[in-house]
Amino acid sequence: MAHARIRRKPMAQINVVPYIDVMLVLLVIFMVTAPLLTQGVQVELPQVDARAVADAQNEPVVVSVRRDGSYHLNIGGDSSQALDGKEIQARVAAVLRLRSTAPVLVRGDHKVDYGKIVEVMALLQRSGVENVGLVTDQPGRR
């Protein structure tokens, strides 16, 4: 009996060079366009644990913005009394002269116009505040 020789074709191989080229081109495109996509204000986020302030010397300065847009401050008088921007700026600057490490926080009503929060943050910046924290509620507390 004669054995027939079976001739096998070599297995087809995938040429990966074009795929590597495509991936490198996509990588370059993403590296070039990614910095262009980031717009807005540079924000330096604090890198600390979210714990309650326990030290009485570092009691935070809290500027509250009510739903009607009025500003209130927790230092230097009655916190329920509405203050204008110049008064907020003067009082916060005075506190920072005495306690330069005092944390400054902004509490804004969830229905208040976003522009009012930005105005308060600009006032605080003119007062010499470098870092401002925003106070929020835990989800489900309303």
Largest sheet: 4 strands, mixed
Secondary structure tally, helices: 3
Rg: 30 Å
Percent of residues in helices: 25-40%
What is the secondary structure topology, with strand pairs?
Layout: H1 17-37, E1 61-65, E2 71-73, H2 85-98, E3 104-108, H3 114-126, E4 132-135
Parallel strand pairs: 1-3, 3-4
Antiparallel strand pairs: 1-2
Helix pairs in contact: 2-3
Report on the structure:
The structure is a single chain. The chain has 142 residues and is of the alpha/beta class. The protein has a domain at 61-135: Nucleotidyltransferase, domain 5. It is built from three helices and four strands; from the N terminus they run αββαβαβ. It has helices at residues 17-37, 85-98, 114-126; strands at residues 61-65, 71-73, 104-108, 132-135. Strand 3, helix 3 and strand 4 (132-135) form a beta-alpha-beta unit. The longest helix has 21 residues, at 17-37. It is rod-shaped. The termini are far apart. 10% of the residues are buried.
